[in-house]
Amino acid sequence: MTALLERGDRSTRLEAFIDAAFAFALTMMVIAGDRIPTSVDALVVALKSLPAYALSFLLIVRFWAGHVQWSRSYGLDDVATRRLSLLLIFLVLVFVYPMRMVFEALCNSLSGGYLPANFSAKVTDIPSLFITFSIAFGSLGAAMFLLYRHAWRLRDALGLSHVERVETRFHMFGWGLIPATALLSIVSALLIPARGQSGWWMGFPGYIYFSLNITAPLLAWRQRRVIAAHQRMFDAPT
């Protein structure tokens, strides 16, 4: 539940372009890629890629939904907004395949090889794969962070209420956790030796992203408490 008002109640050409670009990014990750199944066995193999596709789909939708919420909340359409929004689209389109590859590797590892990883990689390639994904994911989070920071800098011009200012700062901090986590992943990928003896530690740069499933709910809980405290303070009789 958001306390932000809807200032962007009209769709702009920029928003229409962004929606179309996100939709195009999703079509680039079809289950079977450019290989159309010609038999039942081939269809089964293609469907085994569904979990990796679903994870990639959810990740891209997360950023699309985040941008929609930002657009509806602030209704900005200035030069900085256009540049940051186009940067977000550029990053999604460039890094859509590294995202899919990381999720395929994750599903392949967790399923003991039952779910396929439709690419070949040596053990020494794993750090590069994680670093590429971290750059992608971190850059997307940084773009959303900069959009919220831009709205925060215009808080007076937008006429944000006290509660809206609190929520804007929490959104800014929440998106900022993504590049911070990505940086930790890159550091761990560089420090952990890329050899079979490293065992499950080889996957640690990827597993570190599960921490967002803890920090994000904690941040949302803290946000609700701070907003409730502000509302009680301003609603209290004088």
Please compute the radius of gyration using only Cα atoms: 20 Å
Sheet having the most strands: none
Query: What is the strand tally?
Result: 0
The overall pLDDT, averaged over residues, is 84
Spans of 5+ residues with little confidence (pLDDT < 50)? none
- How large is the count of helical segments? 9
How are helices and strands ordered from N to C? HHHHHHHHH
Estimated helix fraction:
over 70%
Distance between the termini: 28 Å
β-strand amount: under 5%
Q: How would you sum up the global shape? A: globular
Assembly state: single chain
Secondary structure class reads mainly alpha
Report what the structure shows.
- The protein is mainly α.
- Helix content is 71%, strand content 0%.
- It has helices at residues 13-27, 40-47, 50-74, 79-110, 126-153, 155-158, 162-191, 204-207, 212-235.
- Helix 3 (50-74) runs parallel beside helix 5.
- The model has no long low-confidence stretch (mean pLDDT 84).
Keyphrases for this structure?
238 residues, 71% helix, mainly alpha
Short description:
The protein is mainly α. Helices cover 71% and strands 0% of the residues.
SSE order and pairing:
Layout: H1 13-27, H2 40-47, H3 50-74, H4 79-110, H5 126-153, H6 155-158, H7 162-191, H8 204-207, H9 212-235
